[in-house]
Amino acid sequence: MQQLLNGIFIGSIYALFAIGFTLVFGILDRLNLAHPAVFAASAFVGIELVERGGLSLWAALPIVFVFGAVLGLVIERVAFRPLKGRADAHFAGLISSIALAGMLVALLQWRYGPDTRRFPPGSFPDTRFEFAGAQVTLVQVVILAISLALMVGLTYMVTRTRLGRGMRAVAENPTAARVLGVDVDRVTAVTFAISSALGAVAGVLFAINVNTAQLGMGSAIELKGLAVIIVGGMGSLPGALIGGLLLGLAEVFAVQYIGSSWRDVIAFGLLFVILLLRPQGLLGARKVREV
Amino acid sequence: MRTKLHTVAAAGAAVVVLASCSSGGDGGDSTASGGLTGEGSGESCTIEGEVPIGAVLSLTGAAASYGESQQRGLELAAAELAEQDGVTYDLTIEDDQTDPRQAITLFDQFVSDDSSLIIGPTLSNAAVQADPIAQDAGVPVLGISNTAAGVTEIGDYIFRDSLTEQAVIPQTIAQATEQFGLEDVVVMYSNDDAFTESGYEAFTAALEDEGVNVSETITFSKSDTDFRALLTQAQESDPDALVVSGLIEAAVPLVTQARELGIDVPIIGGNGFNNPQLMADAGEAAEGVVVGAAWNSSSDNPENQAFLEAYEAEYGAQPDQFAAQAYTGLKLVDHAVRANCSAERDDIQEALGQIEDLPTVLGEFSIDENRDANHPAVVQVVQNGEFTVLE
To answer: Would you say the ipTM is above 0.85?
Structure first.
């Protein structure tokens, strides 16, 4: 039971991170590899807000959300928009976003130094519950609730609102969307902003969960995020949610039943098995190109 | 301070020039400034010239916090030695910027400056790269913080006064077994780091010697931060203690999460846990963490009490282990110089190897046949946010 909860908690953070990834990919057909840098940057900024600004953890979260959104606009503006007219825009954007990620991490190192940073002691309430024989902290429950709320909110926005309709139209066919009066540039920028805001919140929640922020934390989760969106089905939001939870659980149960040294082998091996059985991912639609 | 160091370096350079001029005449055995051998022995030893000692410390960069403590320890010892009669020391401290390449450059410089001995460098990885230069040139080196295996194996001119993890861990396990009546433990270590892996090997050997059963061995990566799954796994075998070989980056979240999951047994850590940052960052969760260390800050031996008092008076702060080992280092050098009443490199090398049961800040101190330090370790447990002696 404890392991199941461990898996769900870490899996929900993977999912939140991956959803930011898959949102940009699903709608704009771009892979934003600066996303992991946003994840790391927001963790450091969140810690600074609590440490220096004296804010409570929960007051810092909305600020980090906004910070992430702004960073998303910058990423779109710097790494993607100048390249959008090129024939190889997809690949060029991939590389320029890696470059931007490198710059962001270098800026972080300049600002915060190479050391691991943590929230000041006493930032978290140390309330603990016993749930079906397992130990759960209030912080973990709140992390799970925030992740789920953001994912539900995002799904509602994409399926029900005017902005969401615009996004889906752009995803379908940008040129047609523009002809129909959708402001494609605006939709693109907003998509990046939302995506990065989610990644930023995921970064802070991860830092809260383990009380550690390191410069390399983005690259540590990057591969997991990519694996999650591939398994979930590229561009599928519920797929990213399920993929994230699945990866979290796979890691935990690999430790439980096979051995800690085999964790990554088992977790990623399982993903390959899923891809062999369902190449389009769990909830991905098979793309049919009509001639 | 900077200007003084520069002057000293310039003077050193001048000495080299003089020495190389004169070496043609008298077989190269002389040193420029008045000779480094003297009359008498021990306290009565009198050496006319100044004895040049070089120290390579990491005063900037990642290891700067260690280097700063070491600098204070060395300068305190140098000030005390300056008040003694007979031998005067010319201590030159240089900064390797936590960069092994810079350490190599400085070692080259000290070797050609005719330094009698080199103290340092701060980090083991710099020692592994820079020490061979001194070994080849026949200049004795005294490491004051290197704990990695293999440093003194570089050659017969390389010594250290820092107790290795391999020396501390058996004492830690023996003491903890006695105090907590350990029967079953779970061992956790990061298997992608050479230091923590050698710590793990020392732990398993020590546990076997004490007849403690290891019910499970769990590995993690040094970049891991979420240990909940591993700890839940450890919890299931209901151990008497967790034995962990990991760096401080892993120690903090590991200890915090263990306590969150309700694991209240002692957590016995390796050298990585021997860091006040543990209590600063993990807070209450750090209570009950057991870790061995080379220096017992509360030891009541007279050398230690005098050191604590002098350090407090000079810097207005408590010394740490790095300061204590640095301070002891220079005192050992003084002992070795006076033993043969000579500051020639070979004479110091011979005398260092013969140090036995010398009363120091670190306790009764000997250099063993591998040129490693040998003295009692102290086993500490975190209580009320501080390391206290486990007894």
So the answer is: no
